[in-house]
C-alpha cells in the first residue's frame, strides 16, 4: 500500500525487483531444503569428503619426520608418501637411515628416491647394498647407482656383470648400457648373450622384462613381445609394465589380447591406460566390432573409464546402440563412474538424453512380459521371470545412470533403488523426488511417463513365451527354449515391435541347463542370470562314486563344488557334522585364501554317487573382481554355515 501511494516509479520498480529476487531465493532455498529432507527420508548417502593430511603444517611435518625413524614399515612408507607432496621437504637427510632399514620394502623405496641426489654418502650406501643385500635391493641399487655416482658407476658395476645372481647381472648390464658406446662394451655383450638364449630361468626373464621399459629402447621390441606371452605370469605382468613405459603402437594389440589372460589382465589394462588418448581409436574399433570376442569387448569400457578423457567418454557415449546387454550395462556404468571421478568431462547432452530414452523404451518393453509371467505363477517360468526382472532392472538403472551424467547422480541412484522391481518399495517417494529434482528439466516428463505407465498383464503367458523364442537377447532366447520344451509350446514368428536389444548366437542347451542348476544354489541366490551365465562358463563337471572322498581335512583348497545330484557328508576328525544335498555348495571356505580344508568332504555311501560342478579358485576370484555380488553371496552362505556349526558344537557340549 505504501508503494502504491508513492509516485516514485524508480522506487516502486526497485522494490518489486527486490521482492521478486527475495521470493526466488526463498523458493530455491526451500527447494534445496525439501530435496535434502526427502533424500534423508530415502536414505541417500552422499560420498564423504576426505580431508588429506597437510604435510606443510609444522606439527604434522614433525610427526611425519619422526615416523621415518620408525621400525614399522607401514608407518615409514606412509610418511614417505605424504612428505613427498611437500615440495619444501628435503628427504636427503633421512635417506641414509632408510637405506639401512631392516625392512626390504623400505630399502627399495629409499633406493628409488636416492636417484634424485648426488651425495657421495648415498652412493657409498648403494654400493654397500649392491655388495651385501638381497637380490631385489641389489638389482635396484645397480639401476640407480649411475644417476647418483655417474663418475664411478662403470667401475663399480662392471664386476657385477658376472654376478651369480642372474637378476643382478641383468640389472648391472642395463645400468651400464647408456655408459657404453653403441653396440660395444661388456654390458652389451652380456645383454646380447641373454637375448640370444631361450631357456633362461624366470628371475632372468623378469629382470629382462623390467629392463626393456627402463631402457626405453624400441630395438628390444621383439623380445618384449615374447615376454608378454611368457609362460610365467609374473614375467607377463612385468612386460606389461615395460609396455606402458614404451607406449609403442605395435604393442597395443598384444596388450588387448592379454585381457583374456586372468593373471595379466589387470597389468595389461593399466598399460593400455598409460597410452591415454592415443589408444582410444583402437579401443573404439574393438568396442563396436561385434565379430570380436565378447570377453575382450567387455573389458574395453574399464580401460576407457581408466583413461578418463573427453575422447574416451565420447567413445562410450557413441558406442553401438544395438549390442550385447551385458556390454551395454558396463558401458553405462563406466560412463557414470567416469563422470563421478572427472566432473569436468564434456558430454554431448543430446546424445546422453537419447541414450537414456532408449533404455527407458527397453524398460517399458520388458515390463508387461515380466508381469504376465509373474502372474502365471507357474514354476516353469521361474528362470525367465528372473532373467526378465534382471533386464527390467538393468535398463532402468542404465537410464537413471545416464540421466545422472548431467544431473545429480546420487539422487538418480536413490531413485533407482526405490523404483527397482526388487527394491525398497518407496515408489511414491521416488516419484515425488523425480518431480522436484528434475523440476524444469525436459527429462522429468519423459521419466515420469515411462515409470507411471500401467503395466498390468493383459496377454497370454504362452504368447509371451513364443515372442521370447525369437528374442534378439540370447539369454532370454535360450531360457525361453528350455521353458517352451517343458511346457510343449511351439515357436512361432510373432513380431512384437522394434526393440534395440541384443542380437547374437543362441546359447547351447547344456550351458543353459548348467545355469539353471546354479540358479538354485544357495551361494548364488542373489545373483542375476547374467552373473550365473558367467559362473556357468568357468564351471566343469565331475562324477564321483559312493563313498569317494572329494577332499580331505588339511589339504590346500583350490576348488569349490556345487552338488548337482546326490549328497555329501562333511566330516571333522572322522565324525560327520553336516550333510549337504543337491543345490548346496562346499569348499567355499578354503577357496577364499587357498588355505587348508577345515573338514573332509565325502560322497554319501550306499547311494548312486554324486555329480558335481567344479569351480577353480583362480577363475572364481577373477570373476569376483567384476561381480562383487559373488563375494556378498559367499559371505552370506559362510555365515549361515558357521552358525549351523556353532549350534551343532554347542549341542554336543551340552
Task: Give the helix/strand layout.
Elements (H helix, E strand, L loop, with lengths): L1 H4 L3 H34 L15 H10 L5 H11 L8 H8 L4 H11 L5 H13 L2 H14 L4 H5 L8 H11 L9 H11 L5 H14 L5 H8 L4 H14 L5 H6 L7 H11 L4 H8 L6 H14 L2 H8 L7 H17 L7 H28 L5 H22 L5 H11 L7 H11 L4 H11 L8 H9 L4 H14 L21 H11 L9 H10 L1 E5 L4 E3 L7 E7 L1 E6 L2 E7 L3 E2 L1 H4 L8 E4 L6 E7 H8 L3 H26 L1
Antiparallel strand pairs: 1-8, 2-7, 3-6, 3-8, 4-5, 4-7
Helix pairs in contact: 2-24, 3-4, 5-6, 6-8, 7-8, 8-10, 10-11, 10-12, 12-13, 12-14, 13-14, 14-16, 16-18, 17-18, 17-19, 18-19, 18-20, 20-22, 21-22, 21-25, 22-23, 22-27, 23-24, 26-27, 28-29
Would you tell me the structural class of the helices and strands? Answer: alpha+beta
The major pleated sheet works out as:
4 strands, antiparallel
Number of helices: 32
Mean pLDDT: 81
Number of β-strand runs: 8
**Radius of gyration computed on alpha carbons:** 32 Å
Strand order of the largest sheet: 1-8-3-6
Shape: globular
| Percentage of residues in helical conformation | 55-70%
Termini Cα gap: 88 Å
> What is the percentage of strand-forming residues?
5-15%
Q: Unreliable runs, pLDDT <50, ≥5 residues? A: 38-51, 493-503
Describe it for me?
The protein is an alpha+beta fold and 654 residues long. It is 61% helix and 6% strand. The chain contains 32 helices and eight strands. Helix 2 runs antiparallel to helix 24, helix 8 packs parallel to helix 10 and helix 17 (280-287) runs parallel beside helix 19. The radius of gyration is 32 Å and the shape is globular.
Amino acid at each position: 500500500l505504501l508503494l502504491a501511494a508513492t509516485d516514485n516509479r524508480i522506487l516502486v520498480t526497485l522494490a518489486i525487483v527486490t521482492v521478486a529476487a527475495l521470493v526466488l531465493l526463498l523458493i530455491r532455498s526451500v527447494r534445496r531444503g525439501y530435496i535434502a529432507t526427502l533424500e534423508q527420508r530415502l536414505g541417500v548417502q552422499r560420498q564423504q569428503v576426505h580431508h588429506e593430511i597437510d604435510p606443510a603444517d609444522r606439527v604434522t611435518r614433525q610427526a611425519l619426520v619422526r615416523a621415518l625413524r620408525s621400525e614399522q614399515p607401514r608407518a615409514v612408507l606412509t610418511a614417505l608418501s605424504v612428505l613427498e607432496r611437500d615440495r619444501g621437504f628435503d628427504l636427503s637427510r633421512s635417506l641414509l637411515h632408510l637405506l639401512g632399514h631392516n625392512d626390504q620394502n623400505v630399502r627399495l623405496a629409499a633406493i628409488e628416491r636416492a636417484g634424485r641426489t648426488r651425495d657421495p654418502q648415498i652412493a657409498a650406501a648403494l654400493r654397500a647394498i649392491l655388495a651385501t643385500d638381497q637380490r631385489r635391493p641389489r638389482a635396484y641399487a645397480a639401476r640407480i647407482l649411475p644417476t647418483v655416482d655417474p663418475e664411478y658407476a662403470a667401475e663399480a658395476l662392471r664386476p657385477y656383470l658376472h654376478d651369480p645372481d642372474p637378476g643382478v647381472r641383468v640389472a648391472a648390464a642395463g645400468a651400464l648400457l647408456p655408459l657404453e658406446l653403441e653396440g660395444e662394451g661388456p654390458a652389451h655383450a652380456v645383454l646380447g648373450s641373454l637375448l640370444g638364449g631361450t631357456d633362461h630361468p624366470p628371475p632372468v626373464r623378469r629382470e629382462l622384462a623390467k629392463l626393456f621399459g627402463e631402457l626405453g629402447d624400441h630395438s628390444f621390441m621383439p623380445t618384449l613381445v615374447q615376454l608378454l606371452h611368457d609362460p610365467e605370469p609374473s614375467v607377463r605382468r612385468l612386460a606389461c609394465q615395460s609396455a606402458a613405459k614404451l607406449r609403442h603402437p605395435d604393442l597395443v594389440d598384444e596388450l588387448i589380447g592379454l585381457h583374456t589372460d586372468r593373471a595379466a589382465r589387470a597389468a595389461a589394462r593399466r598399460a593400455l591406460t598409460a597410452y591415454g588418448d592415443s589408444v582410444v581409436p583402437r579401443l573404439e574399433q574393438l568396442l563396436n566390432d561385434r565379430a570380436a570376442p565378447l570377453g575382450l569387448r567387455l573389458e574395453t569400457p574399464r580401460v576407457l573409464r581408466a583413461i578418463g578423457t573427453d575422447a574416451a567418454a565420447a567413445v562410450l557415449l557413441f558406442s553401438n546402440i544395438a549390442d550385447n546387454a551385458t556390454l551395454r550395462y558396463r558401458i553405462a556404468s563406466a560412463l557414470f563412474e567416469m563422470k563421478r571421478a572427472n566432473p569436468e568431462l564434456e558430454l554431448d547432452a543430446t546424445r546422453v538424453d537419447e541414450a537414456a530414452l532408449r533404455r527407458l523404451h527397453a524398460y517399458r518393453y520388458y515390463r508387461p512380459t515380466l508381469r504376465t509371467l509373474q502372474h502365471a505363477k507357474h514354476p516353469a517360468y521361474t528362470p525367465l521371470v528372473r532373467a526378465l526382472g534382471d533386464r527390467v532392472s538393468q535398463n532402468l538403472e542404465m537410464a537413471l545412470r545416464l540421466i545422472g551424467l548431467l544431473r545429480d547422480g546420487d539422487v538418480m541412484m536413490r531413485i533407482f533403488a526405490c523404483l527397482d522391481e526388487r527394491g525398497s518399495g518407496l515408489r511414491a517417494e521416488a516419484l515425488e523426488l523425480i518431480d522436484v529434482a528434475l523440476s524444469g528439466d525436459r527429462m522429468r516428463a519423459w521419466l515420469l511417463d515411462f515409470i507411471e505407465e500401467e503395466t498390468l498383464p493383459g496377454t497370454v503367458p504362452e504368447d509371451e513365451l513364443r515372442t521370447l523364442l525369437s528374442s534378439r537377447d540370447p539369454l532370454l532366447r535360450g531360457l525361453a527354449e528350455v521353458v517352451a520344451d517343458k511346457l510343449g509350446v511351439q515357436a512361432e514368428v510373432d513380431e512384437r515391435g522394434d526393440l534395440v536389444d541384443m542380437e547374437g548366437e543362441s546359447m547351447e542347451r547344456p550351458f543353459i541347463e548348467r545355469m539353471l542348476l546354479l540358479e538354485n544354489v544357495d551361494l548364488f541366490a542373489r545373483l542375476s542370470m547374467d552373473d550365473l551365465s558367467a559362473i556357468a562358463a568357468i564351471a566343469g563337471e565331475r562324477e564321483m562314486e559312493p563313498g569317494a572322498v572329494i577332499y580331505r581335512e588339511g589339504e590346500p583348497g583350490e576348488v569349490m563344488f556345487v552338488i548337482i545330484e546326490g549328497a555329501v557328508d562333511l566330516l571333522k576328525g572322522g565324525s560327520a557334522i553336516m550333510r549337504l544335498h543337491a543345490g548346496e555348495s562346499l569348499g567355499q571356505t578354503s577357496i577364499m585364501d587357498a588355505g587348508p580344508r577345515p573338514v573332509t568332504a565325502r560322497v554319501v555311501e550306499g547311494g548312486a554317487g554324486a555329480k558335481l560342478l567344479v569351480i577353480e579358485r583362480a577363475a572364481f576370484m577373477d570373476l569376483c573382481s567384476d561381480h562383487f555380488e559373488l563375494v556378498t553371496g559367499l559371505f552370506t552362505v559362510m555365515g549361515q554355515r558357521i552358525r549351523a556349526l556353532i549350534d551343532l558344537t554347542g549341542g554336543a557340549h551340552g
